[in-house]
Structure formats: C-alpha cells, structure tokens
Amino acid sequence: LQSALIPVTVTIRNVPADARGSLFLAGNDLEIGNWKTDTKTAAGSFLCPHAPNCFLDISLPAGKKIDFKLFYLDSNRAVHEEPGPNHTVSVPAEGTGSATVEWQKG
Is 10 a residue whose pLDDT tops 60? Predict the structure, then answer.
C-alpha cells in the first residue's frame, strides 16, 4: 500500500451494451493496475444493475489525483479501450469519494 486508502464509487453513464459484461478501469496508480489492461491488476468488473449506467466501488490513495481509462473484454477476451482522453478523479484526504463520468464515443 502506498498510503491510506479511501473508498471511491466510480459511476460510468451510458456504457454501450457490448461493454457492460466485463468493464474494467486502469490508471496511473498501483491500486488500479498502473495502466495495464489486464483483469488481474485493473479494477473491476463494474456492476450494471441500472444499465446503461455502471458502477464500481474501489479503494484509492487518499489525497491523490487519479487518471484512469476504461476498457472491456469482448466474447473472445480481446481488449477494447474506451476512446477519448483519460478521466480524472480527485480522491479526498478522508471520508469517501465519488466520480461520475460519461462513456466517451469514438
């Protein structure tokens, strides 16, 4: 562990149907895979009980700005990254955090 961890809920709005079954998050921190699109190190899989919106509860380092990207696996286990720029969440120093972003279309 790098520092104290804060629970953060990440919500993605308007996730395409083909991405909902195995949606993951990778980013610039050890807790979320250091940008590796590998389901063993990335955070996920997201839950989508209110599709097309999906969410994931994760723990991230307190007080840190986290950049992340979304990716999903298709039925052949091929990786597909969300198009567009990275998303960002600023993790609070204490308490809980949240981030809500839109799925970016290419």
Answer: yes
Please, are residues 23 and 45 in contact by the beta-carbon 8 Å criterion? yes
Asked whether 46 and 55 are in contact (CB, 8 A), the reply is yes
Q: Report which of 48, 32, 51, 49 is spatially closest to residue 40, judged by C-alpha positions.
A: 32
Residue type at position 71: F
Question: Is 106's pLDDT higher than 90?
Answer: no
Q: Over 60: is that where the pLDDT of 36 sits?
A: yes
**Residue 54 bridge partners (DSSP):** 12
With beta carbons less than 8 A apart as the criterion, state whether 58 and 5 touch.
no
